[in-house]
């Protein structure tokens, strides 16, 4: 059981949960939530936001090098996860710094892209690996972003575990 107190975003308000609990990542009025392997992650007050029908949660790992964010927004009819991925990729490429070693792919109904950012950070190269996953559920689009700064090959296992653990849990309500 975790000794840390984690925070959950419920109806746009950060609410402390009991030690060992997992955050609730869901929009008001939805009978489902997004879940991943939360071990080692705590919600950060920096980076999250809510603007009506859309919300973002931002988490940091206790190691200080791993980060995760979840964004849920309304989906447009007829737009696929792959189309959302391509749009996000195009917008990201228009900003500096340039991504390196990029890769785009799909698996079933999920669309992905990954890339490295190489730039100075805290006196040394950032060498940040980023992976984004896009999926649609119940009229919503979900984007999961995981990253590791000062990336080492062993970090790939954590990135893969988080991506593989991503699921939508129906609450039956």
Quick structural summary:
It contains 2 helices and 14 strands, in the order E-E-E-E-E-E-E-H-E-E-E-E-E-E-H-E.
**CATH-assigned fold name:** Protein Transport Mog1p, Chain A
Helix content: 10-25%
Strand-residue proportion: 35-45%
CA radius of gyration = 16 Å
Number of strands: 14
Number of helices: 2
Helix-strand topology string = EEEEEEEHEEEEEEHE
Specify the structural class: mainly beta
Question: Which CATH class applies here?
Answer: Alpha Beta
Q: Domains counted in the coordinates: how many?
A: 1
- Mean pLDDT across the residues is 84
Question: How would you sum up the major sheet?
Answer: 8 strands, antiparallel
Poorly predicted regions: 1-19
Shape: globular
Keywords for this structure?
2 helices; 14 strands; mainly beta; 173 residues; 8-stranded antiparallel β-sheet; Protein Transport Mog1p, Chain A
Describe this structure in words.
With 173 residues, the protein is mainly beta. It is 14% helix and 45% strand. It is built from two helices and 14 strands. The strands form four sheets. Strands 4, 5, 6, 7, 8, 9, 12 and 13 form an eight-stranded antiparallel beta sheet that branches. Strands 1-2 form a two-stranded antiparallel ribbon. A hairpin with a 2-residue loop joins strand 1 and strand 2. The longest helix has 13 residues. The N terminus is likely disordered.
